[in-house]
Amino acid sequence: MPETSAAAASPPPTQLPESCPVHPERACIGTCKRCGVFLCVECRHPVESTRCHACVQVLQGNARPGLRGLMWLALLMLAGQPVLFFSVATTAQQAASGAGWRDIWANMDWLSATGYELLGSGVLALYGLILTPAYLMRRRWIPRQMQYFLVCNLVLRGVLVAVSRAMMLPPGQLETAVPNLMGSLLSGLLMTGVWMFYFAKSNDVKQTFVT
Ligand SMILES: [Zn+2]
Ligand SMILES: [Zn+2]
After folding, report:
1. Residues 41 and 98 in one domain
2. How far is the CA of 44 from the centre of ligand 2 (A)?
């Protein structure tokens, strides 16, 4: 019988009364492991039989679910932005045949494909740095901000860079490059759509970002 197991699980009976103080018609079978209140079969929680209803509610209310599954991937996407920026910057430096950072920054053609890429990555790195701690703290406004972030990512890294690259191609090469650019744009659009849907609709997300 569950009654006996519940009684055995509670601390050694410190003078249990015969009957429940709340339900005099029921036998007292133990005390709540958390608050120590006397329990009868009605007072104890049906699932967590060593605790009272109130304590189980408190414990469940305090237990926020942690980050799960895709949320870790999204966190990686946020926290990885500074790394991406660094790799873009390093590539730019190498393209300038190892000149010092200061020279590169001074002579950088910011209206070039690399310039757009650097600017975009810089903005996204900053955005990612700002959002990451709040993401870890599971702030309730994170799902909305993640959608903004995804749009920014698509515009800055997808559209702007693709368009600037296309503009800077020598004449005649555009036709051959267009299918590639369109392909990467479309895949970016698709990825963004899937992620936005996830952050807008997922119940997991709704239950996680609650503080
Ligand atoms: Zn209790
Ligand atoms: Zn009772």
Report:
1. no
2. 7
Q: What long-range pairs does 165-174 form, CB within 8 A, spacing at least 24?
A: 165/113, 168/112, 168/113
- 53 and 84 co-located in one domain: no
The total of structural domains in the chain comes to: 2
Contact 62, 47 (CB under 8 A): no
Q: Which residues of 22-44 are buried (b: 16+ CB within 10 A; e: fewer)?
A: eeeeeebbbbbbeeebbbbbebb
Give residue 18 CA to ligand 2 midpoint distance, Å: 11
190 shares its domain with 150: yes
- Which ligand gives the minimal distance to the CA of 38? 2
Token reading at 172: 């005649």
181 with 96, same domain: the answer is yes
Ligand closest to the CA atom of residue 58: 1
Residue 77: what pLDDT?
94
23 Cα–ligand 2 center, Å: 4
Question: Given this model, what pLDDT does residue 181 score?
Answer: 84
User: Residue 62: what pLDDT?
Assistant: 61
Q: In which domain, by residue range, is 28 found?
A: 2-62
Q: Would the pTM count as exceeding 0.70?
A: no
Residues 50 and 94 in one domain: no
Which bound ligand lies closest to the C-alpha atom of 45?
1
Give the per-residue pLDDT at 42. 92
Please give the distance, rounded to the nearest whole angstrom, from the Cα atom of residue 67 to the centre of ligand 1.
29
- With a cut of 70, list the residues of the chain below it in pLDDT: 1-14, 61-65, 98-99
Looking at the CA of 27, name the nearest ligand: 2
The Å distance, Cα 32 to ligand 1 centre, comes to 5
